[in-house]
Design brief:
It is built from 3 helices and no strands. Helix content is about 45%, strand content about 0%. The radius of gyration is 12 Å and the shape is globular. It has about 90 residues and is mostly helical. α1 runs antiparallel to α2. It has a single domain, classed as ACP-like (Non-ribosomal Peptide Synthetase Peptidyl Carrier Protein, Chain A, Orthogonal Bundle). The longest helix has 19 residues. The two termini are about 15 Å apart.
């Protein structure tokens, strides 16, 4: 699964945690998630949502402010984690 140019399922999950992003506004890959309302508590909830709905678990080493800086950086981390899962099951 890829999360570039923002995957609709990923975007739907992410949007629920972005309190400053109006529903009718486009979420661009390089938008600051912090500026759109993602704080540390929302990030924790977002991780639970991603695990539950996408089945992707971010490894501890990717739980950084840089990972959660933009939709693109978070999407890249999810893609990498998803690739690791796929490689481990093949």
């Amino acid at each position: 699964m890829t999360y570039s140019a923002i995957d609709p399922a990923f975007e739907a999950i992410l949007r629920r945690r972005l309190s400053y992003l109006p529903q009718d506004e486009v979420l661009r890959p390089d938008d600051s998630l912090k500026d759109l309302g993602l704080d540390s508590m929302q990030a924790v909830e977002l991780i639970f949502d991603i695990e539950d709905e996408l089945g992707v678990v971010l490894p501890d080493e990717l739980m950084t402010a840089q990972t959660f800086a933009t939709a693109a950086s978070l999407g890249a981390a999810l893609a990498a984690a998803s690739d690791q899962i796929s490689a481990g099951t093949s």
